């Protein structure tokens, strides 16, 4: 059973890597399943044993990224200093910049990312007492602003170091939004 599981994971990884590479080369809409299987060196029929279409494969990639980011952010300690959460985000983006570029460059998936990350933020936060800003608006704002900052950084070839981007994230996005509307839920 373990050998089969490893083969499945290896095949899925190869398909995901091929999809990301091809998306960066020619755009998601131009990528075909045949392109993906040829790049991954996987049989065409094998693709359909794992996914019904390229959208399901891309959704699988998105799910992995979200799980990794949420896990990373849950381990962040606010006492690690200003910008530490932002530095974690930007370190992840730098280390996985090809995947992030592919996800953000696909409009449908960008919307799914925005929705899923907003829902996660809502579940991980609570409304600040006395705030006039509804939780769903504050959550959407912090996620959309974070995505915009990440896109800017990637579009400009990551001109500033991770630590500075973490501080910029903290000062422009996290601190003002948290002070105005969000409280972390008790763990």
TrEMBL record:
Pfam families: TetR_N. SUPFAM superfamilies: Homeodomain-like (SSF46689). InterPro entries: Homeodomain-like_sf, HTH-type_Tx_Regulator, HTH_TetR. Residues 32-51 bind DNA. Residues 9-69 form the HTH tetR-type domain. This is TetR family transcriptional regulator. It comes from Dictyobacter formicarum. It comes from the Bacteria. PROSITE patterns: HTH_TETR_2. Keywords: DNA-binding.
């Amino acid at each position: 059973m373990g050998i089969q599981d490893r083969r499945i994971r290896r095949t899925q990884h190869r398909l995901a890597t091929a999809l990301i590479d091809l998306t960066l080369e020619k755009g998601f809409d131009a990528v075909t399943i045949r392109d993906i299987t040829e790049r991954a060196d996987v049989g065409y029929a094998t693709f359909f044993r794992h996914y019904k279409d390229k959208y399901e494969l891309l959704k699988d990639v998105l799910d992995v990224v979200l799980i990794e980011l949420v896990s990373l952010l849950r381990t962040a300690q606010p006492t690690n200093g200003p910008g530490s959460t932002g530095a974690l985000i930007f370190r992840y983006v730098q280390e996985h910049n090809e995947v992030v570029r592919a996800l953000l460059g696909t409009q449908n998936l960008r919307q799914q990312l925005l929705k899923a990350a907003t829902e996660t933020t809502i579940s991980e936060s609570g409304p600040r007492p006395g705030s006039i800003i509804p939780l769903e608006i504050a959550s959407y704002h912090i996620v959309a602003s974070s995505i915009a900052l990440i896109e800017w950084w990637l579009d400009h070839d990551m001109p500033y170091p991770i630590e500075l981007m973490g501080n910029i994230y903290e000062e422009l996005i996290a601190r003002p939004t948290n002070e105005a509307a969000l409280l972390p839920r008790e763990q």
